[in-house]
Design goal:
The complex is a heterodimer of chains A (166) and B (278). Chain A is mostly helical and 166 residues long. Chain A contains 9 helices and no strands. The longest helix of chain A has 20 residues. Chain A starts with 6 loop residues before the first helix and ends in an 11-residue tail after the last helix. Classes of the chains: A mainly alpha (166), B alpha+beta (278).
Protein backbone atom coordinates (compact mmCIF):
# COMPACT_ATOMS: atom_id res chain seq x y z
CA UNK A 1 0.00 0.00 0.00
CA UNK A 2 1.42 3.36 -1.02
CA UNK A 3 0.70 5.08 2.28
CA UNK A 4 2.91 2.57 4.06
CA UNK A 5 5.93 3.81 2.16
CA UNK A 6 8.85 4.18 4.46
CA UNK A 7 7.02 3.58 7.71
CA UNK A 8 8.74 0.34 8.60
CA UNK A 9 12.15 1.81 7.92
CA UNK A 10 11.22 4.91 9.91
CA UNK A 11 9.91 2.85 12.81
CA UNK A 12 12.95 0.59 12.96
CA UNK A 13 15.41 3.40 12.45
CA UNK A 14 14.11 5.90 14.98
CA UNK A 15 12.40 4.00 17.77
CA UNK A 16 15.42 3.53 20.00
CA UNK A 17 16.35 7.19 19.79
CA UNK A 18 12.79 8.23 20.55
CA UNK A 19 12.50 5.84 23.45
CA UNK A 20 15.86 6.82 24.90
CA UNK A 21 14.86 10.47 24.72
CA UNK A 22 11.59 9.69 26.51
CA UNK A 23 13.45 7.61 29.07
CA UNK A 24 15.84 10.48 29.77
CA UNK A 25 12.97 12.94 30.05
CA UNK A 26 10.60 10.84 32.10
CA UNK A 27 12.97 8.71 34.15
CA UNK A 28 10.81 5.64 33.65
CA UNK A 29 11.88 3.13 31.03
CA UNK A 30 8.59 1.25 30.90
CA UNK A 31 6.63 4.45 30.56
CA UNK A 32 9.03 5.62 27.88
CA UNK A 33 8.67 2.45 25.90
CA UNK A 34 4.91 2.42 26.15
CA UNK A 35 4.65 6.08 25.18
CA UNK A 36 7.00 5.58 22.25
CA UNK A 37 5.02 2.58 21.07
CA UNK A 38 1.78 4.53 21.29
CA UNK A 39 3.32 7.51 19.49
CA UNK A 40 4.23 5.27 16.56
CA UNK A 41 0.67 3.96 16.44
CA UNK A 42 -0.53 7.55 16.16
CA UNK A 43 2.13 8.27 13.58
CA UNK A 44 0.96 5.35 11.48
CA UNK A 45 -2.64 6.59 11.68
CA UNK A 46 -1.61 9.73 9.82
CA UNK A 47 1.55 8.56 8.17
CA UNK A 48 0.53 9.91 4.78
CA UNK A 49 0.82 13.40 6.30
CA UNK A 50 3.66 12.94 8.75
CA UNK A 51 6.03 11.34 6.28
CA UNK A 52 6.01 14.66 4.43
CA UNK A 53 7.33 16.57 7.42
CA UNK A 54 10.95 17.66 7.47
CA UNK A 55 11.48 15.72 10.66
CA UNK A 56 8.85 13.04 11.33
CA UNK A 57 10.91 11.80 14.27
CA UNK A 58 10.38 15.13 16.02
CA UNK A 59 6.64 14.65 15.68
CA UNK A 60 6.81 11.20 17.26
CA UNK A 61 9.12 12.48 19.97
CA UNK A 62 6.75 15.32 20.85
CA UNK A 63 3.71 13.08 20.88
CA UNK A 64 5.58 10.50 22.92
CA UNK A 65 6.64 13.03 25.51
CA UNK A 66 3.14 14.37 25.90
CA UNK A 67 1.86 10.85 26.29
CA UNK A 68 4.63 10.05 28.71
CA UNK A 69 3.55 12.66 31.20
CA UNK A 70 -0.15 12.22 30.72
CA UNK A 71 -1.72 10.86 33.81
CA UNK A 72 -4.64 9.63 31.79
CA UNK A 73 -2.42 7.53 29.63
CA UNK A 74 -0.79 6.10 32.71
CA UNK A 75 -4.15 5.16 34.12
CA UNK A 76 -5.12 3.55 30.87
CA UNK A 77 -1.85 1.70 30.70
CA UNK A 78 -2.42 0.21 34.10
CA UNK A 79 -5.31 -1.64 32.56
CA UNK A 80 -3.82 -2.46 29.20
CA UNK A 81 -0.09 -2.88 29.72
CA UNK A 82 -0.30 -6.58 30.34
CA UNK A 83 -2.47 -7.15 27.31
CA UNK A 84 -0.22 -5.01 25.15
CA UNK A 85 3.05 -6.53 26.08
CA UNK A 86 1.85 -9.95 27.06
CA UNK A 87 4.51 -12.09 28.57
CA UNK A 88 7.17 -11.16 26.07
CA UNK A 89 10.83 -11.03 26.92
CA UNK A 90 11.68 -8.40 29.51
CA UNK A 91 14.63 -6.12 28.98
CA UNK A 92 17.58 -6.31 31.32
CA UNK A 93 17.36 -3.94 34.27
CA UNK A 94 19.09 -0.59 33.72
CA UNK A 95 22.71 -0.21 34.72
CA UNK A 96 23.83 1.71 37.80
CA UNK A 97 25.15 4.52 35.64
CA UNK A 98 21.85 4.84 33.87
CA UNK A 99 19.92 4.88 37.10
CA UNK A 100 22.18 7.60 38.49
CA UNK A 101 21.97 9.68 35.31
CA UNK A 102 18.20 9.38 35.10
CA UNK A 103 17.86 10.30 38.75
CA UNK A 104 20.05 13.35 38.24
CA UNK A 105 18.13 14.40 35.14
CA UNK A 106 14.88 14.29 37.04
CA UNK A 107 16.24 16.88 39.42
CA UNK A 108 16.62 19.39 36.60
CA UNK A 109 13.75 21.71 35.73
CA UNK A 110 11.89 20.29 32.75
CA UNK A 111 13.09 23.03 30.40
CA UNK A 112 16.75 22.52 31.33
CA UNK A 113 16.36 18.75 31.10
CA UNK A 114 14.84 19.05 27.66
CA UNK A 115 17.70 21.20 26.42
CA UNK A 116 20.34 18.91 27.92
CA UNK A 117 18.77 15.75 26.56
CA UNK A 118 18.19 17.13 23.08
CA UNK A 119 21.70 18.50 22.82
CA UNK A 120 23.74 15.86 24.61
CA UNK A 121 21.68 12.75 23.95
CA UNK A 122 20.13 13.41 20.56
CA UNK A 123 23.16 15.37 19.43
CA UNK A 124 21.08 18.26 18.14
CA UNK A 125 22.79 21.62 17.71
CA UNK A 126 21.75 24.55 19.85
CA UNK A 127 20.03 26.03 16.82
CA UNK A 128 18.10 22.80 16.27
CA UNK A 129 17.06 22.61 19.91
CA UNK A 130 15.91 26.21 19.70
CA UNK A 131 13.91 25.46 16.58
CA UNK A 132 12.31 22.35 18.07
CA UNK A 133 11.36 24.01 21.33
CA UNK A 134 10.47 27.44 19.97
CA UNK A 135 12.83 29.08 22.42
CA UNK A 136 15.60 31.58 21.50
CA UNK A 137 19.06 30.06 21.06
CA UNK A 138 20.52 32.17 23.84
CA UNK A 139 17.94 30.85 26.24
CA UNK A 140 18.84 27.30 25.20
CA UNK A 141 22.51 28.07 25.88
CA UNK A 142 21.62 29.37 29.31
CA UNK A 143 19.63 26.25 30.06
CA UNK A 144 22.47 24.04 28.84
CA UNK A 145 25.04 25.77 30.99
CA UNK A 146 22.77 25.68 34.03
CA UNK A 147 21.75 22.07 33.47
CA UNK A 148 25.29 20.96 32.85
CA UNK A 149 26.44 22.61 36.05
CA UNK A 150 23.69 20.94 38.05
CA UNK A 151 24.40 17.54 36.54
CA UNK A 152 28.11 17.92 37.21
CA UNK A 153 27.35 18.57 40.85
CA UNK A 154 25.02 15.60 41.11
CA UNK A 155 27.12 13.10 39.18
CA UNK A 156 30.62 14.26 39.92
CA UNK A 157 31.40 14.38 36.22
CA UNK A 158 31.06 16.92 33.48
CA UNK A 159 29.41 16.97 30.09
CA UNK A 160 31.57 18.02 27.20
CA UNK A 161 30.60 21.04 25.21
CA UNK A 162 31.11 24.71 24.67
CA UNK A 163 27.85 26.43 23.83
CA UNK A 164 29.19 29.90 23.25
CA UNK A 165 29.57 29.35 19.52
CA UNK A 166 27.09 26.52 19.11
CA UNK B 1 27.24 10.84 18.51
CA UNK B 2 25.69 11.40 21.91
CA UNK B 3 27.80 12.63 24.78
CA UNK B 4 29.65 9.67 26.35
CA UNK B 5 27.75 10.21 29.56
CA UNK B 6 24.51 9.46 27.71
CA UNK B 7 25.82 6.46 25.81
CA UNK B 8 24.89 4.29 28.76
CA UNK B 9 21.24 5.22 28.22
CA UNK B 10 21.40 4.04 24.63
CA UNK B 11 23.08 0.84 25.74
CA UNK B 12 20.29 0.17 28.20
CA UNK B 13 17.54 0.62 25.63
CA UNK B 14 19.17 -1.45 22.94
CA UNK B 15 17.57 -4.77 23.90
CA UNK B 16 14.11 -3.46 24.55
CA UNK B 17 11.48 -5.61 22.82
CA UNK B 18 9.35 -3.75 20.30
CA UNK B 19 6.02 -4.60 18.78
CA UNK B 20 6.39 -5.74 15.17
CA UNK B 21 5.53 -3.15 12.54
CA UNK B 22 2.44 -5.15 11.61
CA UNK B 23 1.16 -4.91 15.17
CA UNK B 24 1.65 -1.14 15.15
CA UNK B 25 -0.36 -0.93 11.95
CA UNK B 26 -3.10 -3.17 13.33
CA UNK B 27 -3.45 -1.05 16.46
CA UNK B 28 -3.62 2.10 14.39
CA UNK B 29 -6.30 0.66 12.13
CA UNK B 30 -8.34 -0.49 15.11
CA UNK B 31 -8.03 2.97 16.65
CA UNK B 32 -9.12 4.64 13.43
CA UNK B 33 -12.15 2.37 13.14
CA UNK B 34 -13.17 3.13 16.72
CA UNK B 35 -12.74 6.87 16.20
CA UNK B 36 -14.91 6.77 13.12
CA UNK B 37 -17.56 4.74 14.93
CA UNK B 38 -17.56 7.24 17.81
CA UNK B 39 -17.85 10.13 15.36
CA UNK B 40 -20.78 8.44 13.69
CA UNK B 41 -22.48 7.89 17.03
CA UNK B 42 -21.96 11.53 17.99
CA UNK B 43 -23.33 12.66 14.66
CA UNK B 44 -26.41 10.51 15.12
CA UNK B 45 -27.14 11.99 18.52
CA UNK B 46 -26.55 15.49 17.21
CA UNK B 47 -29.04 14.96 14.41
CA UNK B 48 -31.60 13.73 16.91
CA UNK B 49 -31.00 16.78 19.06
CA UNK B 50 -31.37 19.21 16.18
CA UNK B 51 -34.44 17.54 14.75
CA UNK B 52 -35.95 17.30 18.20
CA UNK B 53 -35.38 21.01 18.66
CA UNK B 54 -36.99 21.76 15.29
CA UNK B 55 -39.96 19.49 15.94
CA UNK B 56 -40.64 21.09 19.27
CA UNK B 57 -39.99 24.69 18.24
CA UNK B 58 -42.89 26.90 19.03
CA UNK B 59 -43.87 24.94 22.07
CA UNK B 60 -41.82 27.07 24.36
CA UNK B 61 -38.21 26.79 25.45
CA UNK B 62 -36.68 23.37 25.66
CA UNK B 63 -35.03 22.30 28.81
CA UNK B 64 -32.37 20.01 27.38
CA UNK B 65 -31.74 21.44 23.96
CA UNK B 66 -30.40 24.91 23.95
CA UNK B 67 -31.82 26.94 21.08
CA UNK B 68 -29.26 28.53 18.86
CA UNK B 69 -26.64 25.88 19.34
CA UNK B 70 -26.11 23.95 16.19
CA UNK B 71 -23.41 21.42 15.64
CA UNK B 72 -20.49 23.13 14.01
CA UNK B 73 -18.53 21.33 11.40
CA UNK B 74 -14.81 21.54 11.87
CA UNK B 75 -12.69 22.52 8.90
CA UNK B 76 -10.26 20.02 7.53
CA UNK B 77 -7.14 22.16 7.80
CA UNK B 78 -4.10 20.02 8.46
CA UNK B 79 -1.22 21.54 10.37
CA UNK B 80 2.01 21.68 8.47
CA UNK B 81 3.96 21.37 11.67
CA UNK B 82 3.73 18.71 14.34
CA UNK B 83 0.61 19.42 16.34
CA UNK B 84 0.26 16.51 18.68
CA UNK B 85 -2.39 18.06 20.87
CA UNK B 86 -4.78 18.97 18.13
CA UNK B 87 -8.06 17.64 19.40
CA UNK B 88 -10.42 15.14 18.00
CA UNK B 89 -13.53 16.97 16.98
CA UNK B 90 -15.57 14.79 14.75
CA UNK B 91 -17.74 16.84 12.53
CA UNK B 92 -21.32 16.10 13.28
CA UNK B 93 -22.39 17.00 9.80
CA UNK B 94 -25.94 17.45 11.05
CA UNK B 95 -28.47 17.60 8.32
CA UNK B 96 -32.21 18.02 8.22
CA UNK B 97 -32.71 16.26 4.93
CA UNK B 98 -34.49 13.34 6.55
CA UNK B 99 -37.40 14.54 8.58
CA UNK B 100 -38.09 12.66 11.77
CA UNK B 101 -40.70 12.80 14.42
CA UNK B 102 -38.42 11.37 17.05
CA UNK B 103 -38.74 13.22 20.33
CA UNK B 104 -35.77 14.86 21.96
CA UNK B 105 -33.91 12.35 24.06
CA UNK B 106 -31.69 12.75 27.04
CA UNK B 107 -28.37 13.44 25.31
CA UNK B 108 -25.44 11.43 26.53
CA UNK B 109 -22.82 11.97 23.85
CA UNK B 110 -20.57 14.99 23.99
CA UNK B 111 -21.85 16.74 20.91
CA UNK B 112 -20.39 19.89 19.38
CA UNK B 113 -23.19 22.04 20.75
CA UNK B 114 -21.95 21.49 24.29
CA UNK B 115 -18.69 23.27 23.48
CA UNK B 116 -17.92 26.94 23.27
CA UNK B 117 -18.58 28.17 19.76
CA UNK B 118 -16.46 30.43 17.59
CA UNK B 119 -18.67 33.39 18.35
CA UNK B 120 -18.04 32.91 22.08
CA UNK B 121 -14.31 33.55 21.98
CA UNK B 122 -13.89 36.53 19.68
CA UNK B 123 -13.17 37.24 16.06
CA UNK B 124 -10.62 35.52 13.88
CA UNK B 125 -10.83 32.06 15.40
CA UNK B 126 -11.41 28.88 13.48
CA UNK B 127 -11.68 25.25 14.46
CA UNK B 128 -8.40 23.39 14.60
CA UNK B 129 -7.76 20.24 12.62
CA UNK B 130 -9.73 17.23 13.65
CA UNK B 131 -7.28 14.47 12.93
CA UNK B 132 -5.65 14.01 16.28
CA UNK B 133 -6.64 13.58 19.87
CA UNK B 134 -4.79 15.50 22.48
CA UNK B 135 -5.98 13.09 25.11
CA UNK B 136 -6.22 15.88 27.62
CA UNK B 137 -2.50 16.57 27.70
CA UNK B 138 -3.04 20.11 28.93
CA UNK B 139 -5.72 19.71 31.57
CA UNK B 140 -5.53 19.92 35.34
CA UNK B 141 -4.86 16.19 35.42
CA UNK B 142 -1.96 16.67 33.03
CA UNK B 143 -0.66 19.44 35.27
CA UNK B 144 -0.74 17.13 38.27
CA UNK B 145 1.26 14.60 36.33
CA UNK B 146 3.76 17.09 34.92
CA UNK B 147 4.26 18.58 38.38
CA UNK B 148 4.64 15.07 39.78
CA UNK B 149 1.72 15.49 42.15
CA UNK B 150 -1.11 13.17 43.02
CA UNK B 151 -4.16 14.02 40.97
CA UNK B 152 -7.78 13.18 41.44
CA UNK B 153 -7.89 10.26 39.02
CA UNK B 154 -11.18 11.64 37.67
CA UNK B 155 -13.22 8.76 39.02
CA UNK B 156 -16.66 8.79 37.45
CA UNK B 157 -15.36 10.08 34.12
CA UNK B 158 -17.57 9.04 31.24
CA UNK B 159 -17.78 10.19 27.64
CA UNK B 160 -15.42 13.05 26.91
CA UNK B 161 -14.06 15.03 23.99
CA UNK B 162 -11.95 18.06 23.36
CA UNK B 163 -11.91 20.70 20.64
CA UNK B 164 -9.61 23.59 19.86
CA UNK B 165 -10.16 26.97 18.28
CA UNK B 166 -7.12 28.71 16.87
CA UNK B 167 -6.32 32.20 15.74
CA UNK B 168 -3.30 33.09 13.65
CA UNK B 169 -0.42 30.86 12.73
CA UNK B 170 3.14 30.19 13.80
CA UNK B 171 4.62 31.73 16.92
CA UNK B 172 1.83 34.31 17.13
CA UNK B 173 -0.95 31.75 17.08
CA UNK B 174 -3.31 31.63 20.00
CA UNK B 175 -5.93 29.10 20.85
CA UNK B 176 -8.68 28.04 23.17
CA UNK B 177 -8.82 24.34 23.88
CA UNK B 178 -11.82 22.89 25.65
CA UNK B 179 -12.47 19.50 27.17
CA UNK B 180 -16.03 18.47 27.97
CA UNK B 181 -16.81 15.34 29.95
CA UNK B 182 -19.89 13.68 31.32
CA UNK B 183 -19.42 12.14 34.75
CA UNK B 184 -21.48 9.46 36.38
CA UNK B 185 -24.39 11.00 38.30
CA UNK B 186 -23.16 12.78 41.38
CA UNK B 187 -19.44 12.40 40.73
CA UNK B 188 -18.86 15.65 38.86
CA UNK B 189 -19.40 17.75 41.98
CA UNK B 190 -17.06 15.45 43.87
CA UNK B 191 -14.41 15.89 41.20
CA UNK B 192 -14.27 19.65 41.74
CA UNK B 193 -14.20 19.13 45.49
CA UNK B 194 -11.25 16.78 45.03
CA UNK B 195 -9.45 19.45 43.03
CA UNK B 196 -9.96 21.83 45.93
CA UNK B 197 -8.14 19.33 48.11
CA UNK B 198 -5.47 18.08 45.69
CA UNK B 199 -4.33 21.40 44.26
CA UNK B 200 -3.29 23.02 47.56
CA UNK B 201 -1.61 19.73 48.50
CA UNK B 202 0.57 19.82 45.36
CA UNK B 203 3.92 21.37 46.25
CA UNK B 204 6.21 20.90 43.25
CA UNK B 205 9.81 22.12 43.17
CA UNK B 206 12.01 23.79 40.56
CA UNK B 207 9.83 26.83 40.10
CA UNK B 208 6.72 24.83 39.23
CA UNK B 209 3.48 25.75 40.91
CA UNK B 210 -0.27 25.21 40.84
CA UNK B 211 -2.95 27.09 42.69
CA UNK B 212 -6.65 27.85 42.70
CA UNK B 213 -6.82 31.50 41.76
CA UNK B 214 -10.57 31.88 41.79
CA UNK B 215 -13.70 29.82 42.26
CA UNK B 216 -17.49 29.61 42.03
CA UNK B 217 -17.83 32.24 39.33
CA UNK B 218 -19.84 30.31 36.71
CA UNK B 219 -22.24 27.42 36.24
CA UNK B 220 -23.00 25.37 39.32
CA UNK B 221 -19.35 25.45 40.26
CA UNK B 222 -16.14 26.72 38.73
CA UNK B 223 -12.42 27.01 39.40
CA UNK B 224 -9.69 29.06 37.79
CA UNK B 225 -6.46 27.13 38.22
CA UNK B 226 -3.09 28.72 37.51
CA UNK B 227 -0.23 26.40 36.58
CA UNK B 228 3.44 27.32 36.21
CA UNK B 229 5.56 24.64 34.56
CA UNK B 230 8.92 25.95 35.72
CA UNK B 231 11.08 28.99 36.23
CA UNK B 232 10.61 31.48 33.46
CA UNK B 233 7.35 29.95 32.28
CA UNK B 234 4.27 32.10 31.97
CA UNK B 235 1.50 30.80 34.22
CA UNK B 236 -1.27 29.07 32.28
CA UNK B 237 -4.87 29.53 33.30
CA UNK B 238 -7.13 26.49 33.29
CA UNK B 239 -10.81 27.03 33.82
CA UNK B 240 -12.92 24.23 35.23
CA UNK B 241 -16.67 24.68 35.16
CA UNK B 242 -19.44 22.28 36.15
CA UNK B 243 -23.04 22.18 35.06
CA UNK B 244 -24.88 19.14 36.41
CA UNK B 245 -22.90 16.03 35.52
CA UNK B 246 -20.97 17.84 32.81
CA UNK B 247 -17.53 19.25 33.50
CA UNK B 248 -15.58 21.39 31.11
CA UNK B 249 -11.95 22.41 31.26
CA UNK B 250 -10.74 25.30 29.17
CA UNK B 251 -7.18 26.28 28.47
CA UNK B 252 -6.92 29.98 27.76
CA UNK B 253 -3.39 31.20 28.15
CA UNK B 254 -2.99 33.93 30.72
CA UNK B 255 -6.72 34.53 31.08
CA UNK B 256 -7.32 36.96 33.92
CA UNK B 257 -10.26 36.87 36.29
CA UNK B 258 -12.70 38.74 34.07
CA UNK B 259 -11.77 36.88 30.89
CA UNK B 260 -11.92 33.53 32.63
CA UNK B 261 -15.26 34.29 34.22
CA UNK B 262 -16.77 35.44 30.94
CA UNK B 263 -15.53 32.35 29.11
CA UNK B 264 -16.69 30.07 31.91
CA UNK B 265 -20.17 31.58 31.91
CA UNK B 266 -20.46 31.03 28.17
CA UNK B 267 -19.19 27.46 28.55
CA UNK B 268 -21.70 26.84 31.33
CA UNK B 269 -24.51 28.14 29.16
CA UNK B 270 -23.48 25.89 26.29
CA UNK B 271 -23.41 22.88 28.60
CA UNK B 272 -27.01 23.56 29.55
CA UNK B 273 -27.87 21.83 26.29
CA UNK B 274 -26.75 18.54 27.77
CA UNK B 275 -28.01 18.53 31.32
CA UNK B 276 -31.42 18.95 32.90
CA UNK B 277 -30.17 21.19 35.70
CA UNK B 278 -30.51 24.47 33.78
Amino acid sequence: MAEEDGFEEFYRGTRQRVMTFLYAMSGDRNEAQDAAQEAYVRAWQRWSTIRGYDDPEAWVRTVGYRLCVSRWRKARNALTAHRRHGTGAEAEPPSENTVALVRALRQLPAADREAIVMHHLLDLTVADVAAHTGVPANTIKTRLVRGRKTLAGLLGTDLTGDYTNA
Amino acid sequence: MPDPLFQTLFDDTEAVPWAPTGTVRDRARTRTRRTRAAALAAATVAVVMVLGGVALAGRGPQKHVQPGISPTAAPSATPSQPAPTTPAAPSTGASSTSASSQPAVEPTAIVDGLFLQLADVGTGYKWAATEDSGGGDWTVEYAFSALQCTGSGMSGLGDHRERTMVKGTGPNASGVTQFVARFRPGTAARYLDELRTKIPACKPSNGMAIKIADQRFAGQDALRVEVTYGEGYTPVALIVVRQGDLVSQISARAADHDQAAALARKAAARMCGGTPVC
